[in-house]
Specification:
The protein is α+β, with helices and mostly antiparallel strands and 368 residues long. Among the domains are: 84-183, no CATH class; 197-347, Roll (C8orf32 fold). The chain has 10 helices and 10 strands. It has helices at 2-53, 94-105, 124-127, 132-150, 197-216, 223-237, 251-256, 261-274, 327-330, 338-341, and strands at 117-120, 162-171, 174-183, 239-240, 258-259, 279-287, 293-303, 306-310, 334-336, 345-347. The strands form 3 sheets. A 5-stranded antiparallel sheet has the order 9-8-7-6-10. The protein is globular.
């Protein structure tokens, strides 16, 4: 009997040892698996951070498009800046880019009408050189021209009321120059139609609301279909009116349904950029149906890595005697190549009287 009890006790002890060993192995196995999972997570996180910082990585979280690659993809991420909003910026010299960058970084301050863009002594060295003042003035004009052509939503600013001010202090015979960009005289640089910041912000909300309505109509469409819809919407809903006070900015055609060629072109650019299509403003001259040459504005947009011309204004002509606009006439200047466009359009490239000559994209020779 005593012997049987001893055997039972030994069996129990051996079983307990075996069970403990099994449980220990299971615990260690799970610990190793957990560690491997944690290491994999860390590796993935590290990889994402590295890819975000590496411009040559193929798996970046942040999309930074090359200009020539934009325009044919409707599925681009929403946290990037469409490249055509810096097309003319890329043609500036370093001084011009410094001024432009200040405008861009503090862009929201324009709506105050009185905000002073203070460069401090940023250009002090330049202003101590021969022709430094002339170079700075030229760079400012080019930066201002480029900024207004790249950013169509600055509809509330009177460009003629923005001026460059250079002042200096002299200590011990050494001059230190300080530069600002501010309202001309004692006033502000807001347009008369938007006299206060509250008026600007109200107009911005109206523009945003209308833009959302337009963009919603293009959901699920291909890039080409989106461009077609935007073009058709502009032609059908806007009337040419060269006397409209807001006809040369996006507010006039969008909220008042009235525009001149500049307003048509700016709104077309602005809408397309909201749906990730690169589109630039183009200015020059055009020969009208009466054979007369006139100053004119139109657009170049990018589809499938090719650039094409669109003249929304001339696709919405004023017809006499109440004649109806045919479908063919509505698309006469839609997605045209240089062979067709050069028959009555000529590029200019000089955006202001004292400005430089900017270059435009080279468009396809053939129509789309």
């Amino acid at each position: 009997m005593e012997k049987s009890k001893k055997i039972i006790i030994i069996v129990i002890i051996v079983s307990a040892v075996i069970l403990a060993a099994i449980l220990t192995e299971i615990f260690l196995l799970r610990a190793r698996e957990s560690k491997e999972v944690s290491n994999n997570d860390l590796q993935n996180t590290g990889s994402n951070v590295e890819n975000t910082e590496d411009p040559n990585s193929q798996n970046q979280n942040t999309y930074v498009p090359n200009f020539n690659d934009v325009g044919g993809n409707s599925d681009l991420p929403t946290n990037f800046e469409i490249a055509s909003t810096s097309y003319y910026y890329n043609q500036l010299n370093n001084v011009g880019k410094t001024i432009y960058d200040k405008f861009k970084n503090d862009k929201d301050k324009f709506k105050t009408g009185t905000y002073v863009f203070d460069f401090g002594s940023e250009f002090n060295t330049l202003l101590h050189t021969d022709n430094g003042t002339e170079e700075l003035n030229k760079a400012f004009q080019d930066a201002w021209d480029a900024f207004n052509y790249d950013h169509a939503d600055l509809f509330y600013v009177d460009t003629s009321k923005v001026t460059l001010i250079t002042q200096y202090t002299s200590i011990g015979g050494i001059n230190t120059y300080n530069v600002t960009v501010e309202p001309r005289g004692e006033g502000n640089y807001l347009k008369a139609e938007f006299p206060t910041q509250a008026d600007v912000e109200k107009a911005q909300r109206q523009v945003k609301y209308m833009m959302n309505q337009v963009i919603e109509q293009t959901q699920g469409d291909s890039v080409y279909q989106k461009v077609v819809k935007v073009h058709e919407w502009l032609v059908r809903h806007i009337q040419y009116d060269k006397e409209s006070k807001n006809g040369s900015n996006i507010y006039g055609p969008l909220l008042e349904q009235k525009a001149n060629c500049e307003g048509y072109s700016k709104l077309f650019k602005y809408v397309l950029e909201q749906i990730n299509v690169s589109c630039v403003l183009v200015s020059g001259t055009a020969t009208n149906s009466e054979g007369k040459q006139e100053n004119h504005a139109w657009n170049y947009l990018q589809l499938n890595s090719q650039w094409y011309a669109v003249d929304v204004t001339w696709d919405d002509p004023i017809l006499l005697n109440g004649a109806e606009l045919t479908e063919e006439r509505r698309n006469k200047y839609f997605l045209k190549g240089s062979t067709t466009l050069s028959q009555d359009h000529k590029e200019g490239g000089v955006f202001s009287e004292k400005g430089s000559t900017f270059k435009f994209p080279t468009i396809s020779t053939q129509d789309y």
